[in-house]
Design brief:
The complex is a heterodimer. Chain A is α/β, with parallel strands linked by helices. Chain A contains 8 helices and 7 strands; from the N terminus they run H-E-H-H-E-H-H-E-E-E-H-E-H-E-H. In chain A, the strands form 2 sheets. Chain A has a 5-stranded parallel beta sheet with strand order 1-2-3-7-6, with helices on both faces. In chain A, strands 4-5 form a two-stranded antiparallel sheet. By secondary structure, chain B is an alpha/beta fold. Chain B has one domain: Thiamin diphosphate (ThDP)-binding fold, Pyr/PP domains (Rossmann fold), CATH 3.40.50. Chain B is built from 7 helices and 6 strands. Chain B has a 6-stranded parallel beta sheet with strand order 2-1-3-4-6-5, sandwiched between helices. Chain B is globular, with a radius of gyration of 14 Å. The chains are: A alpha/beta, B alpha/beta. Chains A and B meet through helix 3, helix 5 and helix 8 of A and strand 2, helix 3, helix 5 and helix 7 of B.
Chain lengths: 202, 166
Amino acid sequence: MKRYECMSILGPKLTDDILVITGTGNTAYQLAEYRRPQITPHSAQLGACSAIALGLALALPHRKVVSLDGDGNLLLNLAVLGDIANKAPGNLGIVVFDNESYESAGKLPTATAGKVDLAAVGRACGIANTCTARNLEEFGEAVERLLKGSELAMVVAKVDTEPEYKRTKELPSVPETTFTFARHIEQLEGRPLFSAYYSTRK
Amino acid sequence: MKKEAVTAIIEGLKEAGVDFVAYLPDSLSSPVFDAVRREPSFEVVPVSNESIGVSACVGAWFGGKVPVALIPTCGLMASALHLTTVCLLWGVPILLVIPYRGDVGDAQPQFWVYTLTIEPVLRELRIPYKIAGKIEDVKPAIKAAVASGRSWLKTTAVLLTGEVLG
């Protein structure tokens, strides 16, 4: 199973009203084939992706938030799974594309190429609604449950590396996405969330 | 930490509009965390690593919250990756409130290294900061840091020292 095959299933389901955070690597490029990249913050560096999603999910508890994380990304800050489990936002879903590799950094193996089982870690941290998908059928069913459910959920998708994948989309610059994503949320929420100027002086 | 200092911190955060608090406790500030957990206007997120707190605050800011990360002195270094690659790169303003352990006058031997490192690290991370050494300085410092940070889209910090830490 390849990540871009998974994305062909997940991407069309990630409608604009769902807030998505992506980590480093090709995930954001592959998602951009199905969703405007201006509304998806990308390149959340190692360990940040699901933590950002946690804060967003808690801030907007009525809105679905999905973290598209990776094994190398998540492993750097594995404790985030415990912190997420303890808050247990029912509107948060975590999809971990686990290719057992730092693919964009020379394909060296991550710890999941050895003994680490991220789904088992997730369950042990307290994310009971955690599963592993090893083929596209399992993945499709798992993300359907994740998107439609009202409980914190995590899907670990065991994917192969994909040296054949060629990026076809460009992503906007990271700072630009901050603004476009923020304005997208304001539009969804129908209220201003970000004031340009907060003065302490009269 | 004296009760008056705890009150000043909590009131400063509330008056600044803060409504989202991620924290990892330290020994001196523990009364602050008790007070934070009791404050109903705060969404409170205990974290296991300061960088998780920083990134959770970033997500909360996108959700319209006014976030603060209350982190130990050493936590500034532990969260430097996300302060750089998320807060600075993305241009997201969060507030850091950090006890200035190792400041001159805090004579415990295990903390002196912070007197050499914490302010240079803040400057290198391009985080403007204020130092509150008196209890009366706490509220104005927090309010100013939040207001400026949100205006500039820059993460800002308040260092607590002197009589604030007691």
